[in-house]
Structure formats: C-alpha cells, structure tokens
Amino acid sequence: MILLLLFSIFIIGPLLPLLPATHWSIRFFDFVRIQTVVIQLLLLGVAFISWEVFTVTHIIFIAVMIAVLLFQLWLIRPYTPFYHRRKPQAEFHKKQLTLVTANVLQTNTNYDKFITIIKESNPHIFITMESDEKWDNEISQAFPEYTHTVKATLDNFYGMHVYSKIPFQSSEIKYLVEKDIPSIHCEITYAEQPFNLIAIHPAPPSPSENETSKERDAELMLVGKQCRESKDATVVCGDLNDVVWSKTSRLFSKITGYLDPRVGRGLYPSFHANYWLLRFPLDHLFYSKDLHVTNMKRLAYFGSDHFAMYYNIAFPMVNIDVANPEITTEDKENIQEIIGDGILSARVSENH
C-alpha cells in the first residue's frame, strides 16, 4: 500500500507543471525532474523485487510510471551529452568574447575567493547578481581595469552589476515587472559587430519569495519580445530562477529562436552549490543563432549557493541577419496573457 502511494506521488508530481497553474508548489516539480527520475527508477526497482505477484493494478501503475519516466527523460535529454550538438555553418573570428555570470549571494563574505576566480578566468565581462554595496566595493578595488560598469546596487538580494573591459555604446537599468528587481541592458561592439547583452534575475516562485511564477514568467516574456524586435546579435544571461525544460523557458526559445549552450553538452547544475543532491540548472545563457558558444564551464565554489558560469562566445566573420521564428496567434495571445498576469500580480503585491 505504501509503495502504491509513493507510485501515485511520483506519477502525479512530475505531471503537475503541465497544468496552467503557477503556484510555487506546482512549479517546484519542474525544478526536481532529475531527482524525481532517480526516485522513479528506484521505485520501479523496488516494485519488481518486492511484488511477488503482479496484479492488474500493479501492471497499470508500472506502465503509467514508465510512461511518466520516459516523458521526463524526453524533456531532459537535450541537455545531456547524448543529444546532438549544434554545428554552426558560419566562419567565426578567432578572437572570442569571454563572459562570467555569478549569483554571489548577498550574505556571502568570501570576497577573496570570488576575486581569485575572476582573476583566473580573466573574462572581458563579468556580471554579478545579489551584489550589494559591500560586494561592489570589494570588486571595484580588486579590478580597476574593468573601467566600464553598470551598477544596480541594492541590498534586497536583487542587486546586479556588470563589469566590463569593453566600452558600452549604451547601457540601461530597467525594472520590467517588479519595481525592486532590475535587469541590465547593454549595447556593445565586439569583433566589429554590435550586440546586445541582457542580464536578468527574476524572483523565483517559492514560499519565501513570490507565491507564483507569474512575475518571473512575465519578465522572461518581456525580454523575449524585446529580442524579437532587435536585429543585433544578443546574449541573455543570468540567474533565471527557472530550468531550461520548463514551459516558460521553452516558450522563450520558441519566440526568439535563441540557443542554449547546454544542449548536447550537459546539465551544468549551478544551484544549490552546498547540496549536490538538490542541484538544478538555474543560471542560463541564451544566444542568437548568429553567435556561437564554443566553450562553457562551471567555475569553482566560492561560498555562494550558486556556482559561477564561464562562457566563450564567438562572433561571425560576416554579419548574419537571422530571421525571427514564426509563432502562432495562440502563442502571441499566450505571451500577452503571461505578461499581463505577471504585471498585475506585481502591482497587487506592491499594494499590500
């Protein structure tokens, strides 16, 4: 009886994110697909060992569990080395842009460890999230060579800073959905080609943050719309507080056509750095098809609950115009509904 109850939980749980509901308790099952796959395999093993006689009920439960397991593996498979990796056709500059993104954890005081990581990787640009005034002071003193900066210095766990050796053509701090959660938008020229760099860190759906994923989803859709309107090469990166196989992340990729360097490489789980059994790929980079990520890696532990991520980004020898993917009227309506719900939810929260 207990085993059948566990079967029920791990059949229903992984299917819950397919519902239109946005409550954190539903969205949670998107985050733990790797963990639930392992548990499903263990439950199937226990069933075959402990059930001496297979009744019709047993067979039905096993068949449904296997179906849900295969569905989860289908979602995860692109982000494993067992999936084909994109082979770009264009010729690229040998000179590549190096980028590091890191949620440093505002309460983390291991400044020296993080500074060592940046010195060792020596990126052209690095982006910090959850960085407050203390973090900015430590970093600014350690890296005077990063003369081009954009600073949204906050102490609410949503501060964000961009440090660059490359000048910006323009830069702007935007508050797309929630009035105290910034995103940073920069126009930069590299390898004689203009490109946009967008850093975001929306709040997660959780008991301690937003009750639903509405605000997070709306921010990602607003950035997706902005990307569709731009003709320049673009990189969108940061702690998205979402997993790449979620409905929202897949919709973002669908409307922009942007690629994820994890595809064909691996999961690169970046959170939680302190608990290896509870790790999810939360820190992402999406890039337009005219670019190519030649290398990515997860950097060393430095005291945060996130690992920093490192990327090499290649630019084409000839500027390529990539057409936007076609999207249906239903997709457009869905996007507008997600944005509207997120903005409304944020306004309601502000008034309470």
Topology overview:
Layout: H1 2-15, H2 24-31, H3 33-50, H4 56-76, E1 97-103, H5 111-121, E2 125-129, H6 133-142, E3 148-152, E4 160-164, E5 168-174, E6 183-190, E7 193-199, H7 214-229, E8 233-239, H8 247-256, E9 283-287, E10 292-298, E11 309-314, H9 329-350
Parallel strand pairs: 1-2, 7-8
Antiparallel strand pairs: 1-11, 2-4, 3-4, 5-6, 6-7, 8-9, 10-11
3D structure, described in words:
By secondary structure, the chain is of the alpha+beta class. The chain folds into two domains: 2-79; 97-314, Endonuclease/exonuclease/phosphatase (Deoxyribonuclease I, Chain A, 4-Layer Sandwich). It is 37% helix and 20% strand. It contains nine helices and eleven strands. It has helices spanning 2-15, 24-31, 33-50, 56-76, 111-121, 133-142, 214-229, 247-256, 329-350, and strands spanning 97-103, 125-129, 148-152, 160-164, 168-174, 183-190, 193-199, 233-239, 283-287, 292-298, 309-314. The strands form two sheets. The chain has a six-stranded mixed β-sheet with strand order 3-4-2-1-11-10, with no helix packed on it. The protein has a five-stranded mixed β-sheet with strand order 5-6-7-8-9, with no helix packed on it. Strand 5 (168-174) and strand 6 form a beta hairpin. Helix 1 (2-15) packs antiparallel against helix 3 (33-50), helix 1 (2-15) packs parallel to helix 4 (56-76) and helix 7 runs parallel beside helix 8. The longest helix is centred in the C-terminal third of the chain and has 22 residues, at 329-350. The radius of gyration is 21 Å and the shape is globular. The model has no long low-confidence stretch (mean pLDDT 93).
